[in-house]
Write a structure and sequence with these properties.
The protein is α/β, with parallel strands linked by helices and 342 residues long. 28% of the residues lie in helices and 20% in strands.
Length: 342
């Protein structure tokens, strides 16, 4: 497969999909208690880390919603909640009731070296979800495994090999085949290319986009790489310390970012046209999630913060171009607000 990325998603305002909603996340929180065991006395009992703190979003059927942000912002925790690997502390995640297949969710993990059992032949690993869910009679299982291998660009004969006989990119193709074996309609992709070389990343991303188009898959995609996010996404949510700072159609976000955090993230990409925008790097580090700042948690690093930002937590507010922004400075027009007009 060609290692060159295809064109990014072309998502003008006029072309925004009217597809039905596949997933609705409503005010999701996930708090982890700390201060017990060896940490008692250092952190104190009764404290908790707000890994996800009141997050709401929707994903349209057949499209990709991506989450981006610095390490520790809660992206992977939210991915696990959507995949059903962990339960939210409060809030709810609802999938559209469109038949049994709509409720089948599979996850593609970050590390292709750790996600496959080294003692299992590849064919056995891919066949496991088919057998576990009793999707096919036994006589049809291996033919289906061979079909899946060919679908992800491998050979049917590879079913007899062990994971150590494959490269990282090939292992991730096996992981994708195993995810598809469960006949999902919804994929959760937790940084599926970050452990791969750049040229291999492009191949895997092209494969995921092709499979999404062919199979009508809905995806939640997690990444810290803005170039990857721009390529795979229909809509993007920018996370900071467990909350959404901005949500927008992909093209709107990259051409007219509004939250100061989003603007600073994009300004760090030299290949983007950022003329007329603040090109200063993000200063400081993410505050401790054990003691997050009051008000807007981004205010200690924000060049536009004032007293209101330090005292009052902002909520997402709809903008004329279809984006949503949680920022007092944007609401009060204290910073230039760009609107996507094409």
């Amino acid at each position: 497969m060609n290692a060159v990325l295809k064109e990014p998603m072309d998502e003008t305002l006029e072309a925004i999909s009217n597809a039905p909603i596949s997933l609705t996340a409503n005010n999701i929180t996930r708090h982890f208690p700390v201060g017990g065991g060896l940490l008692r006395g250092k952190l104190g009992a009764g404290k908790s880390v707000k890994a996800v703190d009141g997050v709401s979003f929707k994903i349209r059927r057949g499209e990709t919603f991506s989450l981006v942000g610095e390490s520790g912002c809660g992206k992977s925790t939210l991915a696990r909640l959507v995949a059903g690997l962990d339960a939210p502390s409060s809030g709810n995640i609802a999938f559209a009731d469109a038949g049994q297949r709509e409720h089948r969710i599979q996850m593609i993990f970050q590390d292709p070296y750790a996600s496959l059992n080294p003692r299992y032949r590849i064919g056995t690993a891919i066949a496991e979800p088919i057998r576990f869910q009793k999707l096919l009679p036994e006589a049809q299982v291996m033919p289906r495994v061979h079909e899946l291998l060919r679908q992800v660009g491998l050979a049917a004969a590879d079913a007899q090999k062990f994971p150590h006989e494959f490269s990282g990119g090939q292992r991730q193709r096996v992981s994708i085949a195993r995810a598809l074996a469960g006949n999902p309609s919804f994929l959760v992709c937790d940084e599926p290319t970050s452990a791969l070389d750049v040229s291999v990343q492009a191949q895997i991303l092209n494969l995921l986009r092709r499979l999404q188009e062919q199979l009508g898959l809905t995806c939640l995609f997690i990444s810290h790489n803005l170039a990857v996010i721009n390529y795979v996404s229909h809509d993007v949510g920018v996370m900071y310390l467990g909350r959404l700072a901005e949500v927008a159609p992909t093209r709107v976000l990259f051409e007219a970012p509004k939250h100061p955090y989003t603007q600073l993230l994009l300004a760090a990409l030299p290949q983007l046209d950022t003329r007329g925008r603040d090109k200063s790097p993000i200063t400081g580090e993410i505050p401790s999630p054990l003691a997050p700042p009051s008000g807007c948690t981004f205010h200690p690093r924000c060049p536009h913060a004032n007293d209101r930002c330090k005292a009052e937590k902002p909520e997402l507010q709809a903008q004329p171009d279809g984006s949503q922004v949680a920022c007092h400075a944007v609401q009060e027009r204290r910073i230039p607000v760009l609107f996507h007009t094409s």
